[in-house]
Design goal:
InterPro entries: DUF4399 (IPR025512). The protein contains one helix and nine strands. It is mainly beta and 144 residues long.
């Protein structure tokens, strides 16, 4: 019986840290932190490929997988939104959700002619938005 309790205690020691790891927006962001577009504003008309520069205030940039206080990495959201429960989950990686887990602060993207929405979201070391989320306003640009 004693062996059973020792085994159960050992299993709890292994499982509990996973239960309390950074999930669902548990990584805090400092007051006043903000992310923004440096070279684009709402209503701009641009040509493709579009160069996009990411600005960040009140926090630092660290690559994905590096867990360091008051840091994160950029995600560019194209023609989509992240809201509600999505703010508690890892940001997907696809054509509409671009990850910059290497710590990049600029990108160039090909966009089809027409209107497109863009938004920046800072993700923690595991691609989950901070609490509170550090995200730009969504802007609309027109590609000629």
């Amino acid at each position: 019986m004693r062996s059973y309790f020792q085994s159960a205690a050992m299993a709890l020691c292994l499982v509990l840290p996973l239960a309390f790891s950074a999930n669902a927006g548990e990584t805090p962001s400092p007051d006043g932190a903000k992310v923004y577009f440096i070279n684009l504003k709402d209503g701009d008309t641009v040509k493709s490929p579009v160069t996009i520069q990411f600005g960040l205030e009140g926090m630092g940039v660290a690559p994905a997988g590096v867990e360091k206080e008051k840091t994160g990495h950029h995600h560019l959201i194209i023609d989509e939104t992240i809201e509600g429960e999505e703010l508690n989950e890892a940001i997907p990686a696809d054509d509409n959700h671009k990850h910059f887990g290497g710590g990049q602060t600029e990108t160039t993207v090909e966009l089809a002619p027409g209107e497109h929405t863009l938004q920046l979201v800072l993700g923690d070391w595991s691609h989950i938005p901070h609490n509170p989320p550090v995200m730009s306003e969504q802007i609309t640009i027109t590609v000629e």
